[in-house]
């Protein structure tokens, strides 16, 4: 079979991402059930019921804080919930202590307190970007500034913690009636710290008892990928439509699996010690991509091998789900997949793919039978990074200082509005500045939308509860039944993906701040109204500041990560294994994992590009790099991996061509970065070499060349000027 015929007949199809069309379709996709989602929702409902019962029984002021903690700090698994709750709880307690010290020195000196508040705001903005624990530093400084601002608004001093002489809100007596304002402020701070301690304890205890184990997420992800591979191998999925699940796994990569593994290691330390999880995840990423290429190349003569591979993949999946019941069958499976690949030796196109599939399944089987990667000789290298609280470029990157100034300016404007209007109820505008000011404009707008939509829904439900249900409530059971539907809705959204989870937090926040005011029933609807108005003001201010002062587009972040991914491809193209017969080479796997992380970072960045409606990216004649183009670049890793793993000695021609490809990928990355020499990329792409003694590399060099030229044809029109660079956006594609 000639190279030309092979490329014509067997070129793999482009991945069909299968994204739903339109905003409603995307919303419905985000609201679909997922493993563990119902469990997390019911766990949040249980925490709300326990918090309300404790608060109403013991007449705890600021009862809504207990519930807000559960929603704000909860993740989708027990490990992250526990660790986040402990770290955030300690941060809030430390912030409360520092606030007391700060007010002791500045409460009677507004001329000193206001500049210090501005300085702390600058620190919050800088540390949130420059520190490795940025979110915690942001919470710490925000808490000090916010509580100090409450002290500065004299109307609020002493009226935040109430005493009761009866069982209704009509019996509220502000504690400032019987103690000095300074002492009342201290009372407020200490009480808030105590309430946070109760809330964090409740969160930790409930998640330790009934939290969702991230090991389930990791196992389900691995099982789903193995079953998708098995379906394609045994012929149950013959069309591209049926193969869409595997294609979607190829597009997503394994970033979610790696995140689940890291969380699982906190609850199951033995997983980290054995290193089997990391080796399994890396192997699974390669298996999925290999199968994307091999699936359209299947023919009648490879039925025995493909069915054996499918049987092995399905057996591995069943053993992962039920180790005790299926382990014996997996041990007894003696099919020699590498031997079955020999029938492909005359086909240089499929033989390397079949070898990689057999090798990957052998790794997965070995790790399941003996879950200790070191005993197999392919333990991933673990590099212990030097612990540092700041990023390496913390004091060199001007973006961090600019982010700090943007937040400080937004907070100053919102604070001035609250003082000028004498309207303490809209202080949520200041909170909004800290919470929604992110690195890029697209990400900021995304969080703004979630915050305002969630607040509107929560406030509307809260006001509706007050008007329609509150007059008929006579006991605690009535209150619990009334809040159940909204809690379930907020919990379901909170337990979703990062695209919508913050809206669930805001629904719960606005709803319970409206409904739970003090002790007993309430008819006060001003809290919900003021909260929404404050959020609207904060969103407007943050947006105007973000697009006016040093705006950062998500396309800039996507471009930086895509340049990094392209350079890594060049490194992998020139990589030569030191031990060609080894089943895994750690250094090569690390580079491949870096490439996967870079591609995942590109996708995460461009997903919010449609929200940047003002066009931070200059238009050029080049085509936009959209989600499908990112997938095309991602799939270049397969022929590059095949070329480096072919078990035929490398001659000088192969090595020379690999080095030329590395230089070309560097030039391609430079063009994506700054637009230099774009018109020369097509001419300078080295043609695939003729290798009569190495037909496998010959055809796979041709495959790589074909795919590169397709990408260039899409990106660079014939009349493209050399200084133009591609625009990175997803407006034309649902991402």
Automatic annotation (TrEMBL):
<keyword id="KW-1003">Cell membrane</keyword>
<feature type="transmembrane region" description="Helical">
    <location>
        <begin position="85"/>
        <end position="105"/>
    </location>
</feature>
<feature type="transmembrane region" description="Helical">
    <location>
        <begin position="117"/>
        <end position="146"/>
    </location>
</feature>
<feature type="transmembrane region" description="Helical">
    <location>
        <begin position="500"/>
        <end position="520"/>
    </location>
</feature>
<dbReference type="Pfam" id="PF13515">
    <property type="entry name" value="FUSC_2"/>
</dbReference>
<feature type="domain" description="Integral membrane bound transporter">
    <location>
        <begin position="413"/>
        <end position="544"/>
    </location>
</feature>
<keyword id="KW-0812">Transmembrane</keyword>
<feature type="transmembrane region" description="Helical">
    <location>
        <begin position="476"/>
        <end position="493"/>
    </location>
</feature>
<keyword id="KW-0472">Membrane</keyword>
<comment type="similarity">
    <text>Belongs to the YccS/YhfK family.</text>
</comment>
<feature type="transmembrane region" description="Helical">
    <location>
        <begin position="532"/>
        <end position="552"/>
    </location>
</feature>
<dbReference type="GO" id="GO:0005886">
    <property type="term" value="C:plasma membrane"/>
</dbReference>
<keyword id="KW-1133">Transmembrane helix</keyword>
<feature type="transmembrane region" description="Helical">
    <location>
        <begin position="42"/>
        <end position="73"/>
    </location>
</feature>
<feature type="transmembrane region" description="Helical">
    <location>
        <begin position="185"/>
        <end position="205"/>
    </location>
</feature>
<dbReference type="InterPro" id="IPR049453">
    <property type="entry name" value="Memb_transporter_dom"/>
</dbReference>
<protein>
    <recommendedName>
        <fullName>Integral membrane bound transporter domain-containing protein</fullName>
    </recommendedName>
</protein>
<feature type="transmembrane region" description="Helical">
    <location>
        <begin position="449"/>
        <end position="470"/>
    </location>
</feature>
